[in-house]
Amino acid sequence: MTATAIAQLQLMTAAEICAAAPLGTIIRYTDLAPEPPLRFKNKHAAWRRSNAQGRLISVTPGANGHPGHFTLHEGDFGTANVVVITFRKTFALDSSLRFAIAQRPAPGSVAVLTAWNGIPELQHLAASHKDAEDWMRTHQHNGAYLEPVSP
What we know:
Elements: H1 3-8, H2 14-20, E1 26-30, H3 41-48, E2 52-63, E3 66-79, E4 82-92, E5 98-103, E6 110-116, E7 119-126, H4 129-138, E8 145-148
Antiparallel strand pairs: 1-2, 1-5, 2-3, 3-4, 6-7, 6-8
């Protein structure tokens, strides 16, 4: 992110972003370092690891002295509608990075969720209840359920 883009965001801690953002929200994260020129490929690649964005797919509260964490889905890679690699990044709630809400789910959105150990995980964000049901028919997940996204 450029210095101008960072200045326009309302930066929060990891714990604050989890309290403020519903599943499905696009979240940006930054270490506040300025972006190096693209010609410095190694420096730029290292900077990108701490300055990017993803969709919030799960939040795990802390327990037994651990601070808890949340996971962002940053992208899928593959060809011909076949996903080969899913790229996710997990952050501790006491992370030193700063976070901002880049985009909230649209009003009326419906989340397709599964649960693991009682923790909901977003599988898909649909524009409507009908779209979510259609997606569930073609992408079967054990124990999947629908939930409207609250703003």
